[in-house]
From TrEMBL:
The lineage of its organism: Bacteria, Bacillati, Bacillota, Bacilli, Bacillales. GO terms for molecular function: diguanylate cyclase activity. Keywords: Phosphoprotein. It comes from Peribacillus deserti. The keyword Phosphoprotein applies. The chain holds residues 85 to 397 of 539 of the full protein. This is Diguanylate cyclase. Residues 27-143 form the Response regulatory domain.
Length: 313
């Protein structure tokens, strides 16, 4: 793996992955001001199949490091400038409801320090001097647990509808059911129109509230057996079991009619929105889940390019 070393000043070092991250390798983010300790941990982790992202400067422990979505964070408590606990609070705020194991390193190893660390929200506490074999054994366990937790997280945090991971599972299930039942199902990909303008005009928080309300609107206007997932930003997917293209088209056109007449009212602002949707109905065997999504996406693109606020198949 390609790594770049940036010396900002003599004791500040950043280690970043140069190329795209290898998603198969767990990514560990280390914040440690002692460069020799940092290099030792980095080499140990890399020789055990981990990727490492690191910095020595707590003041730069910014979002851009966390945006790489590390699987585990190792944090030295005695960082210059900021205390490890301040950094811990910032990290916790940033990762919000995701589960990322945080391990605190400390040269202080008394009961009070350990209790303070656990109360502050760390998952483990490792005292210096570090036993490297024990350190790796602990990291391995934390990473296994992280993977397990991720497998069970199927709900989108913001909108509380299913997420993309769940969609992948359920769509695979729909496809295999189809082979048995030969009953058609339809996939709709929905994208809010000019949603960026909502953020730009009223702020990101208002944008978030719109997404929450939109998901709720869809959820409360479809059948219990229909499945709604948040596919990405302002894109949602609905799976309609036992529904052909015509049925799904009528349903979505009705949803669009109701939705475009809704008025969002937040503080002094009121506005209305529309969405575009693309449909794909599965009526024959042998099509892969990815191809179904792609076909719905192409129909959506068609709806967008022919004026928006419409449903295409
Ligand atoms: P179009 O009609 O072509 O779809 O235009 P658009 O503005 O909706 O599309 P574009 O893809 O340019 O912008 C999507 C916007 O959605 C940009 C992004 O900031 C915003 N967005 C994505 N996820 C979230 C989110 O979780 N919250 C908020 N508030 N905005 C989000
Ligand atoms: Mg979009
Ligand atoms: Mg778009
Ligand atoms: Mg959009």
């Amino acid at each position: 793996i390609g790594l770049s070393y940036e010396y900002e000043h003599f004791n500040a070092l950043e280690i970043k992955t140069e190329k795209n991250r290898d998603e198969n390798l767990p990514l560990i983010y280390i914040i440690e001001d002692d460069i020799s300790m940092l290099m030792l941990l980095k080499d140990t982790l890399e020789s055990h199949g981990y990727m490492v992202l690191a910095n020595t400067d707590a003041a730069n422990t910014a979002a851009r490091f966390l945006e790489a979505n590390p699987d585990c964070i190792i944090l030295n408590v005695n960082l210059p400038g900021k205390t490890g606990f301040q950094v811990l609070d910032e990290i916790k705020e940033h990762i919000a409801f995701q589960f990322v194991p945080i391990i605190m390193l400390s040269s202080e190893n008394n009961k009070e320090a350990r209790i303070a660390a656990f109360n502050g929200g760390v998952d483990d506490f490792i005292a210096k001097p570090i036993e490297l074999d024990e350190f790796i054994a602990k990291i391995d366990r934390h990473i296994k647990r992280k993977k397990l937790v991720d497998q069970f997280v199927l709900i989108d945090e913001l909108t509380q509808v299913y997420n993309r991971r769940y969609l992948n599972n359920v769509l695979t299930q729909f496809v295999s059911d189809f082979h048995r039942t030969q009953s058609p199902f339809t996939v709709a990909m929905i994208d809010l129109d000019h949603f960026k303008e909502v953020n730009d005009s009223y702020g990101h928080l208002t944008g978030d509230r719109v997404l929450i309300e939109f998901a709720h609107f869809i959820r409360s206007n479809i059948r219990g057996s229909d499945v709604i997932c948040r596919y990405g930003g302002e894109e949602f997917i609905i799976l309609f079991p036992n529904t052909n293209e015509k049925g799904a088209m009528l349903k979505l056109e009705r949803l669009l009619e109701i939705f475009r007449n809704m008025v969002f009212q937040y503080e002094d602002n009121s506005f209305s929105l529309t969405f575009s949707a693309g449909l794909y109905s599965v009526t024959h065997s042998g099509i892969l889940p990815e191809a179904i999504i792609q076909a719905a996406d192409e129909a959506l693109y068609h709806a967008k390019s022919t004026g928006r606020a419409r449903v295409e198949s």
